[in-house]
Amino acid sequence: MTGATYNADQLLDAILTSLDDDKAEEVVKINLRGKSEMGDWMVIANGRSTRQVSAMAEKLVARMKEKFGVLSKVEGKDVGDWVLIDTGDVIVHIFRPEVREFYQLEKMWMPGADTAAV
């Protein structure tokens, strides 16, 4: 599918599949349409360790490049506590559980019914 056109929902589905394949935990998707200009979706997920968080991020970036030709911006992969992946249409946060609990990112974006655990 490289070079083909895609939409945000197709990208979201591929991201959720990638995270599922890599055993991400507590995955939540948040619809940002009409709420933010930064993207259409936000995905938040946990990894069990810094190694798993970094590996999930690395694989996700590679899969999005291979499948859609998307060059993602990545922050935090070297540390592995919290990795931010910006694909343009979907913003992905992968945390270690303790770091996710500390920042409580979902609470800033929880519009109620528009937030769905996957």
From TrEMBL:
Protein name: Ribosomal silencing factor RsfS
Annotated compartments: Cytoplasm
Pfam family membership, one: RsfS
Subunit architecture: Interacts with ribosomal protein uL14 (rplN).
Predominant subcellular localization, coarse grouping: cytoplasm
Family statement: Belongs to the Iojap/RsfS family.
Keywords assigned: Cytoplasm, Repressor, Translation regulation
Residues spanning the membrane: none
Keyword DNA repair attached: no
Lineage per the UniProt record: Bacteria, Pseudomonadati, Pseudomonadota, Alphaproteobacteria, Rhodobacterales
UniProt function note: Functions as a ribosomal silencing factor. Interacts with ribosomal protein uL14 (rplN), blocking formation of intersubunit bridge B8. Prevents association of the 30S and 50S ribosomal subunits and the formation of functional ribosomes, thus repressing translation.
UniProt xrefs under SUPFAM superfamilies: Nucleotidyltransferase
